[in-house]
Amino acid sequence: MSGRGAWLLSRRGCGRAGERADAQRADGQRADGQRGSMAAEFTVIAPAFALLLLLLSAGGQWVSVTGQVGGAARDAARAASLARSPVQAQAQAQQAANSDLAGVCTGDAGTVPQVTVSAVTSGALAPFETAQDVQVNVACTVGLAAFELVGFPAHQTFSAAGVAPLDPFVCRSGAC
Description:
Strand content: 15-25%
Largest sheet: 4 strands, antiparallel
Low-confidence stretches: none
Order of helices and strands: HHHHEEEHE
Shape: rod-shaped
Structural class: alpha+beta
Radius of gyration: 34 Å
Strand order of the largest sheet: 2-1-3-4
Number of strands: 4
Mean pLDDT: 81
């Protein structure tokens, strides 16, 4: 075949020359309308994937800080349970929370956790001298940088409570 017959066969996709001619024209455009589809798919999928990664990072930071504040509350309650007076219990609980949350608390409330110590008996407030348990509440304001990138508030206050039993054989009345 020569001339017009060969040209028709090559345009219909018969033979190697025809396959290349159908797949891509001489000006670089695809004959089947697929030009730029990969770029369009990438521009749609890439931001969604980046947002997913940011949300995973922010969620991980949230879970980590929640665990740190909960651990600090337990440690502060244990430290307060060893004290002999309410003033000493507050000081020891604050010191324990400060050491557990060093560098974690930031923001408007300051860089130290807020610690509240309460003596309780059967869930109700009681005098420190006769209480059975000590309850410590720890609050910490944390700057969440990963959430700021997504558009959520940059600071969040995390709080937790810890309870520890007081030793009934330790004198806490001051008359000992």
